[in-house]
């Protein structure tokens, strides 16, 4: 099965839910990652029930804290 993750085509042996996908892709600190599936942000509560299918496009979004120092 082919999907696209962050713009890169990946081959998966079978359909996975979002939680399993995060694990198989060795995502560090998955609790800090938001997941977009085919242009829609997936609610974290739905990771276990949302299945990634053939030709889906997935984006792992990493939010970074920051700001201007000294302002």
Automatic annotation (TrEMBL):
SUPFAM superfamilies, sorted: MoaD/ThiS (SSF54285)
Protein name: Sulfur carrier protein
The organism of origin for this protein: Natranaerovirga pectinivora
InterPro entries reported in the protein's UniProt record: Beta-grasp_dom_sf, Mopterin_synth/thiamin_S_b, Thi_S, ThiS/MoaD-like
Top-level lineage group: Bacteria
Pfam family, one: ThiS
